[in-house]
Each structure stands twice: as C-alpha cells, then as structure tokens.
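Service request form, structural biology core

Requester: graduate student, group of Dr. S.
Request type: structure prediction, single chain
Budget code: on file
Notes: please return the result as structure tokens.

Sequence provided:
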Amino acid sequence: MAAVVIASKNKNKVREIKQLLSGEALEVLSLEDFSGAPDVVEDGSTFADNALKKAKAIARFTGLTALADDSGLEVDYLKGQPGVYSARFAGISATDGENNAKLLKLMEGVPREQRTARFRCSIALVSRFGLIECIDGTCEGLILTEEKGTGGFGYDPLFLVPDLRLTFAELSDGDKNRISHRGKALRAALPVIQRWLDAGQI
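Core staff response, request fulfilled:
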C-alpha cells in the first residue's frame, strides 16, 4: 500500500489529519514512526513557505511522500498577528494558555465588530518522485473575550464561528473537521493525492 508521512510531531495535528485521510487507500504515517527525523526550522515568511520546507525535508529523510501543514491564527485588529508565530506568540516554549493570555491582553477593550480573525492552513505535498503541490484553507471567525470549551487545542477556545455560535473548542472532532481551515485544505488536497495514487506517483 502507498504511504504518506505527516511531517509533524504535533499529536493533535497528526490526529486531525489522520481522521481526514481515513477514507483513502493509504498508509498514513507520522514522524513518530521514524527515529532521527530532523527538526525543521520554520523560518518562512508565510505558512506555505514553512509547510513546503517541512514536506521537502521529510520526503528526503524518509524516501516517502510527505504531507506537511503549517497553520495559525490571523487577527485583523493585530494586522495579521500572530500569523506564522502562532505557536510561539508568547515565547519560544509558550503553552497554549500563555499564547491565549497574550492574545486576550492585546485585544482588551476591542469591540466585537473589530475582533474578526481567521484560521489559515497551508498544506504542502511533496511526492517521493519530486512532485509538489500547495493548498490553502481558511475559516473565518471572531476572537472572544474569554475562553469557551474544553476541546481542541491552541486558540480554539477563543475562536468563535459566528454561524454556529460555538468556538472550535466546543465542537466535536467531526464538526470541527467539517468546517476548519485544516479540513478545507485537506479536502482540497485529496484530489491531488488521488491523482498521484492513480498515476503510481506516491
């Protein structure tokens, strides 16, 4: 069976991606299945830059087709911050709680109509034959003034989906995957994966 390696050590991301790829005729691996995988420095200026850098590095390391995701939160009032620094917004080793606390502090007193934001995800696919595809997905929302919900990870408890009146952290995994930035990007990537499978290029 053809295999794809998820180029991530983030267990939450790996879980979500595996759920979304569960219907494909693929063996879905992660970096947990390999010892000595390189730590790729995410120093790109965009999510796509970082995703592609990770996918290329892991495809070279494993000799298999790699799928990498880079994603984060873009807050309009903060001119797109935290953006590519989402995971380290409050510092290199910041926890989700510390990042959320910093975001809440910066957004103190900002009215609801100015709290617009989006999650953005860039998916990079690099086949073991050197084929490359990059796909984006976004989900629009609002930043709350306090955390709601206990599910998800990262900024999920602060990110309200207006149409549902629920945060990402209040959604089931299935509902979140249906509307999320990552879900949209991965579903857009599935035809590419299928095309590569049909052509024997994975």
